[in-house]
Amino acid sequence: MADPLARRDADLVVAAARGDQQAFRELYRAYAKPVYWLAHGLLGNTADAEDVMQETFLVAWRRLPTLDLVSESLLPWLVTICRFQSANRMRRQRRDRLHTAGAVEESLAATVDVEDQVIGGDLAERVLAELGTLSPLDQQIFRLCATEGYAYAAAAAELGISHAVVRNRLSRVRTRLRTVVGSEGS
Predict the structure, then answer these.
(1) Considering Cα of 118, then 124, then 127, then 133, what sign does the dihedral take?
(2) Quick one: pLDDT at residue 106?
(3) What is the Cα–Cα distance from 6 to 22, expressed in whole angstroms?
(4) Is the pTM of this model over 0.85?
(5) Interacting residues of 109 by C-beta distance below 8 A, sequence separation 6+
(6) Cα–Cα dist 75/32, whole Å
(7) In this predicted structure, what is the pLDDT of residue 126?
(8) How far apart are CA 51 and CA 19, in angstroms?
(9) Which of 23, 53, 72, 99 could make an SS bond with 15 (beta carbons 3.0 to 4.6 A apart)?
(10) How far is Cα 44 from Cα 144, in angstroms, rounded to an integer?
(11) In this predicted model, what pLDDT tens digit does every residue of 7-47 receive, in sequence order?
(12) Alpha-carbon span 79 to 160, nearest angstrom
């Protein structure tokens, strides 16, 4: 005796192939979860699994008119479609990563300009030379606040001076550096 559920799949496939949307909805409800979990197992990502599940049923909808259901269930056919859709997605993601990585490397190489490197190196040398002319306290304040990211209060505590001394001295150092860099850069 034939399984009533299998007969039901065969009837639903025939009806859906003729365009019966309700029949296709019933097939979708019956098999969406197993197809989703298969896709999730293959792809390891919820969003990708949802997309592949939808793509699987879209392909199924389009191919139903030519389907000759040979088993008792539609599931093996859907599993095959899901595997192909998952493989296609993995290939596409791999290809996109390769092209994206190549594009990033190309854009990085294109943005490196020797002239900019020379100017940047020259600027750094001028800043370092100017910092060398500062008092030892001003050099320490600049190092702590400008390069190591200390807050004024933390730098003051580290150096044993007041917050106001750090703030005022750092302001003078920055003004001096801007003046030197601006006048020599012109």
Answers:
(1) negative
(2) 55
(3) 18
(4) no
(5) none
(6) 10
(7) 76
(8) 23
(9) 23
(10) 46
(11) 588 899 999 999 999 999 999 999 999 999 999 999 988 99
(12) 72
**Neighbouring residues of 57: CB distance < 8 A, sequence distance ≥ 6:** 28, 32, 35, 78
Exposed / middle / buried, residue 61 (Cβ in 10 Å: 0-12, 13-18, 19+): middle
3-state secondary structure the chain: CCCHHHHHHHHHHHHHHCCCHHHHHHHHHHHHHHHHHHHHHHHCCHHHHHHHHHHHHHHHHHHHHHCCCCCCCCHHHHHHHHHHHHHHHHHHHHHHHHHHHHHHHHHHHHHCCHHHHHHHHHHHHHHHHHHHCCCHHHHHHHHHHHHCCCCHHHHHHHHCCCHHHHHHHHHHHHHHHHHHHHHHHC
pLDDT at 149 over 80: no
- Residue 93 CA to residue 52 CA, distance in Å, equals 13
Tokens of 19: 């365009």
The residue type at 181: V
Whether residue 152 contacts residue 165, with contact meaning beta carbons closer than 8 Å, is answered with no
